[in-house]
Amino acid sequence: MKFLKASSLFFALFAVLFTFADVVHPVQYSYAISKADYKAGDTVDFIINAKIIDGWYLYSTEFAATDPIKFKCTITSSKKFTQVGAIVAYKPFSHFDETWEGEVKVFESLGQFRIPLVIHKEGKIELKAKIESQSCSNAEGRCVPVDVNMHVDLSKLPYGDYVAADPAVYSHYDSKESAKGTEPQKGAPIKEEASNSGESIWSLLLTAFLAGLTALITPCVFPMIPMTVSFFTKQEKSKGIKQAMIFGFSIIVIYTLIGVVFSVVFGKNFAQALSTHWIPNVLFFVVFIIFGVSFLGMFEIVLPSSWGTKMDQLSEKGGMIGIFFMAMTLVVVSFSCTAPVASSVLILASQGNFARAIPAMLAFSSAIAIPFMLFAIFPQWMQSLPKSGGWLNTVKVVLGFIEIAFAFKFLSVADRVYHWHLLDREIYLSIWIVLSFLLGVYLLGKLRFSHDSPSDTVPVSKFLFSIVFFCFSIYLIPGLWGAPLKFLSGYIPPQTSLDFDLHTSSKILLSNIPDDRGAVKYSGKFKQPYGIKGFFDFQQGLEYAKKHNKPLLIDFTGESCTNCRKMEDGVWIDEDIISLLKNEFVVVSLYYDDKGKLPLEEQYKSDLDQEMKTTVGDKNLDFQVQHFNSNAAPYYVILNHDNLTPLITPRGYNADIPAFRKFLEDGLSIFKAEK
What we know:
Structural class: alpha+beta
Number of strands: 18
Strand content: 5-15%
Number of domains: 3
């Protein structure tokens, strides 16, 4: 009975941790009012704006299907106003949902609902209401309720207007509806860029779990399995299993707490700095190089021996406390092997949001803990375990090579954002080619490190893995001369950093228009792909577009933006699209993450956030948010010369080539029709 209680306690803890780790807030609501200076007797619309994260959609108010929860807002009655009509959803998209077997209406990215009210009294009016709604994700295969209790003061709400629905994000729906974009108004939510990793929580958990299994078969952890399990199997069976469960869950708690601390200490702001600032990126580069060479055997990274001794002494206390400190002893003793892998998982998880470190460490630690528990429950399985030996050090060395290769990704981010030109594409690829080739040589036994055991034969497993790394090395070689390497698009420096590009040179021939741009501002630091002759300053591009009577394509991009490179390498590379960009549009690329200082006379205080804009990136991002109500990257806007109202609804990241081609063609057609 005690065992069942203890097991229930730990499974409850596991469930709580997992629920906390995987909590999703797919929709954020903001509120506005259709008339700022209302008076008694006026009818105004109370506006509910919904900002929906990438990959999720929100059900609207009215549709044929009966099962999904429809959007509902119940307003508490008040003497100061009266609701005079039903809630109205503004331009939801309609499609047939096979899951619910009926027609549904949904919003993605942005949604808006309006409730008409008659005002009975001027001044402060408190509105209390409850929103009941449901949001779903096709990618993650689940739905979550999004219920909110609101309490707002109508007199303090911003003025709002209708927001345009964005058909560009409905590529998986068969909708024929298209809309000309409208300039966003105050009160509408800002579209934010999804994390550059682009991965769901489930792919992150799988990656972290596999990393935990890798850490399990390192020389510091694997030999601990039989020793630890033998301690539990010497006990009476039910007691041994109970202790093994406590031991495993203690490992999970310890590592997950590390994820919690990591999230709390650094937080979201540091995650944003990580994506662009040189200090954290160079720091992580150095850390990963140190971890990598330690795995190769240059030295060992260990915690003070007194820590291990102290944990070992505490583990002798017995009971649950003693078992917990046994787990702590394992964590401390195995630090030199697990720390580099765990830190890789933490940093991978933190790309865009440090809260993801919690579920990542939960999955990582589960992969280490579960085998200890299973072998204690089924001790006969121990006979099938391979014996400790030189293969464990081989695993460690392979991880060392991977850590070193991974390190250059961080240095590359800083290099591109600050234009150091230390790691242009050919240099970066050369490093990876050499590392991959040397790893293949090592697995064949032709290269040995200090801790390797001598061997006259090569196991088949090593031989097969060596083939994989040799093939990867060969795959990278054409990239030195401009091959797109689409498999790695966004994870290696862009092709524009190549000195000798045979691939792009063929694309340059798609335009016969002479280059009469003159001196292009910022052309010394930025380049556009495939020989596109565009601009990097909006005003300069606008003047050129007026001169040649062409529409503007604003390309909001970034040096550190993975999805921007994926669009260029996977979509812009299409010959029809390149021809349109080079011959029919004036392309203006505005980088949100450039750290170059603006001249003093161009620095200004933003009306949006009242902060000084001192860099080129600050200016471009402020321009995007103020005029297009978005801070997404990539983000594409087609304009004429008269105002900042998009000719067609702007597009974010979408790797559908025909859809992007149609976006350009439709924008061009509207521009010509208006002229």
